[in-house]
Amino acid sequence: MGKEFMKIGPITCSILADPPYKQMRTSKTDFTLAKEKPSLIADITCSKLDSGHVLCEAPLSNFSVRTNNVGDEILKMCNGKNTIEDIAYDLVEKYDYYDDDQFLEQVKTFLNIFRTYRLL
After folding, report:
1. Secondary structure E strands in 1-120
2. Within its chain, how far is the Cα of 33 from the centroid?
3. pTM (2 decimals)?
4. Angle between helices 69-76 and 84-95 (to 10 degrees)
5. In whole angstroms, what is the distance from residue 117 CA to residue 50 CA?
6. Domain range enclosing 63
7. Which of 30, 72, 94, 117 has the fewest C-beta atoms under 10 angstroms from its C-beta?
8. Per the domain annotation, does 29 fall within a domain?
9. Is 26 within a domain?
10. pLDDT tens readout for residues 63-117
């Protein structure tokens, strides 16, 4: 299993997956449209850790991600009803981030991890 750490603006995540994310990632699977409405698949479980981070696991896929509260909030909003744009702009307002468009791209990048493993 490959372990990788990524900091995507205010989003941090530690990915443990087989095969490793950097090996799996292709631009063909990336989110490109902000109007897409991602939805997590049912076999992902997320649980709070003592550190304040959240661990999301998909045992059938040999995949887990430990993320901070920003990543957790993004995933909670992936219900098939919210667009990526809605998710990003809601959190921009909540956390008072300075650049809406930059954060939108960071949310897409974070969600691409899950899409690469077919979990969105």
Report:
1. 2-8, 11-17, 45-48, 54-58, 63-67
2. 15
3. 0.90
4. 140
5. 26
6. 2-20+36-116
7. 94
8. no
9. no
10. 999 999 999 999 999 999 999 999 999 999 888 787 888 999 999 999 999 988 8
